[in-house]
Amino acid sequence: MAKIVVIGGSISGLLASISLSRQGHEVKIVDPTASDTDLDLEKRFSSRQKGLAQRHHSHAFLAKLRNNLKSNYPDVLDALLKAGAFEMPFMEFLPKTILQRDLEPGDVDLVGIGARRTTFETVILGIAQKEQGIEIIAGEISTLLASKNTDNPTRIYGVKIANGDEILGDLIIDCSGRNSERNGWLKKLGLGEETIEESPCPIQYLTRFYKLPSSASFLEPDGRFAGDFGYIKVGIFPADNGFFSITVGLNDQDRQLGKLRNPEAFDNAMLAFEHTGKWLRIKDMEPFTKVEAMTKLKNRRRKAVPLDQGGSIVGLIALGDSLMHTNPLYGRGCTISSMQAFELPKIIDSSNDGSQLVENWNAYVEKEIFPYYDMAVFQDAQDFMTIENGGIPPKGSLGHVIKEGVIPATYVDTGVYRAFIKAFNLIGGPFDLLSDPNVLDTINKTIAQRESNTWELPDPFGPTRDELVRLIENSL
Ligand SMILES: Cc1cc2nc3c(=O)[nH]c(=O)nc-3n(C[C@H](O)[C@H](O)[C@H](O)COP(=O)(O)OP(=O)(O)OC[C@H]3O[C@@H](n4cnc5c(N)ncnc54)[C@H](O)[C@@H]3O)c2cc1C
User: Fold this and answer.
1) What is the pLDDT of residue 444?
2) pLDDT confidence of 293, banded at 50, 70, 90?
3) Domain of 19?
4) Which of 314, 247, 249, 255 is nearest to 275 (CA)?
5) Phi-psi category of 463—alpha, beta or left, where left has phi over 0 and alpha has psi -120 to 50?
6) Whose CA is nearest to atom 1 of ligand 1?
7) DSSP designation for 329
8) Number of structural domains in the chain
9) Quick check: is 310 in a domain?
């Protein structure tokens, strides 16, 4: 049994702590917000947390996360469902335009979770509060505690919180999110130990939450949760307790469409898209939040220098967004954090000492986690090409294959729909979508039909960019 200190008690810190405590470890979570122990979902949704603007953005909780909970932590999944979250069986949402609806046994696992992020977090906080072996301490970490400079490797053996208290542990896990100050803490100790890679995301992200009256229920999704219209991406996210949200992804530099931050303009614009408009027309539906915006987003990963290449720290690892975060458009952050959280106890078990633990963790991260960074950077590069090409993916780009092949084919072919849903939900490897020859064949045929104008299905309905700009200007 190890004594473990977790810096940060949000999604990653809580999931890691639950999985570690259930393997018999003694965990202390330190978070500045921990003095707020109230588990009221609506109070938490209404409250703000500095540095955590994403709390009020739409979150997709993918099948990989849901399946992991179902197999290993069924009580956590049950608690989420009891709190109002619900399971989203994607294969039951096959578009009506698919005539041949052959399902496969594995399809029952293609199920995500619909919930507000604050609901997800509050439920797992409630579980952590009750967990034997977890102590939650209010405090902000200001310094790491390190063994003497002459020790090699240097062992990080604790943390210091702003009031001067020291908390000691065999392992310190940094779960303090995308703005982690870990590098600064290490530099203060004379330990410049990490390389940071980053690349800008091409989008700004706008979200508004709405609430349905208790008499209304969610609409049949008919396979259509999101649409990519080249100049704008528009998604709808059913969530818990009658809430749903609409998120749009825009070119980060697009000032005209950036005016969608105006709530009236946002609602009028979303009424103009087929898949969001029908939700906004539900009788007595009410907007619940302002339009939340996040801009200047980045993909970022931080690599610890391996011990055999000059690295000199043991006792500290990073997990969750503090290790890596990617374009939120792909909806992967919480799922990828959960993968790490659930793997860590196994890695601790299989490591004989601190050095081996750090090496095993780095090897796991390199093999299983960082490929998602490469994938996000690759996907973003395709999006930048589309932006430079006036909102139309250039021929030959992945964007072109997705827009002209994959997406249209998901409306007529179960195999492509399944492959797309699997890829989105991280079932299989990061680059699996185009690896099945049958799927690839259907996609190529779809592209050919669209190029020769023999494709019969209408595209998802939405305004052109000019129409949308006019609509926005008229709303201001
Ligand atoms: C706009 C947007 C949309 C997103 N959409 C999705 C989505 O659809 N699906 C998805 O899975 N992911 C999504 N993500 C990513 C997801 O939000 C993150 O992956 C997730 O929040 C990571 O959680 P975390 O616990 O690692 O970090 P965070 O949630 O950032 O939590 C960090 C915690 O550390 C604490 N902390 C910070 N500094 C200190 C300190 N010095 N001492 C102690 N504690 C500290 C903070 O108080 C906080 O509680 C989105 C992100 C953004 C920005």
Assistant:
1) 93
2) very high
3) 3-61+115-199+297-376
4) 247
5) beta
6) 54
7) G
8) 3
9) yes
Phi, psi of 136 (to 5 degrees): -110, 125
**Within this chain, do residues 325 and 417 fall inside the same structural domain, yes or no?**
no
Residue 322 alpha carbon, nearest atom of ligand 1 = 26
> What is the chain's alpha carbon radius of gyration, rounded to the nearest angstrom?
23
Do 285 and 213 touch, CB atoms closer than 8 A?
yes
Q: Examine the domain organization and report whether 284 and 220 are in the same domain.
A: yes
CA distance 13 to 340: 11
Q: How do residues 445-473 score in pLDDT, each as one tens digit? A: 999 999 898 887 777 789 999 999 999 99
Does a structural domain hold residue 67?
no
Instruction: Select from 50, 59, 204, 330 the residue to mutate for testing ligand 1; criterion: most ligand atoms less than 8 Å from CB.
Output: 59
Residue 137's φ and ψ, nearest 5 degrees, are -115, 135
In this predicted model, which residue has the larger pLDDT, 333 or 457?
333
Q: How far apart are CA 36 and CA 135, in angstroms?
A: 14
Within this chain, do residues 288 and 320 fall inside the same structural domain, yes or no?
A: no
Q: Are residues 219 and 273 in the same domain?
A: yes
Which residue among 376, 409, 430 closes a domain?
376
Q: Are residues 280 and 410 in the same domain?
A: no
The Å distance, Cα 334 to ligand 1 centre, comes to 8
Ligand 1 binding site (Cβ under 6 Å of any ligand atom): 7-13, 30-33, 52, 54, 57-60, 140-141, 175-178, 205, 294, 320-322, 325, 328, 331-335, 337
- Residue 250, both tokens: 């825009």
Q: Above 80 in pLDDT, residue 439?
A: yes
Tokens at residue 265, please?
């303009």
304 and 286, same domain (yes or no): no
- Predicted-complex ipTM score: 0.99
β-pair partners for 167: 159
**Residue 68 forms part of a structural domain:** no
304, 358 in Cβ contact below 8 A? Answer: yes
Closest CA to 172 of 201, 210, 211, 143: 143
Please report whether residue 70 resides in a domain.
no
How far is the centre of ligand 1, averaged over its atoms, from the C-alpha of 9 (Å)? 10
Q: Categorise residue 318: left if φ over 0, alpha if ψ from -120 to 50, beta otherwise.
A: beta
* Burial class of residue 83 in the structure, from the number of CB atoms within 10 Å of its CB (0-12 exposed, 13-18 middle, 19+ buried): middle
Residue 218 shares a structural domain with residue 138: no
Domain boundary among 311, 345, 376: 376
- Output the CA torsion sign for 21, 34, 299, 262: positive
Within 8 A by CB and 6+ apart from 352, the residues are none
pLDDT in tens, 215-267: 777 777 666 788 888 889 999 999 999 999 999 999 888 889 999 999 999 99
CA 83, CA 75: separation in Å to the nearest integer?
12
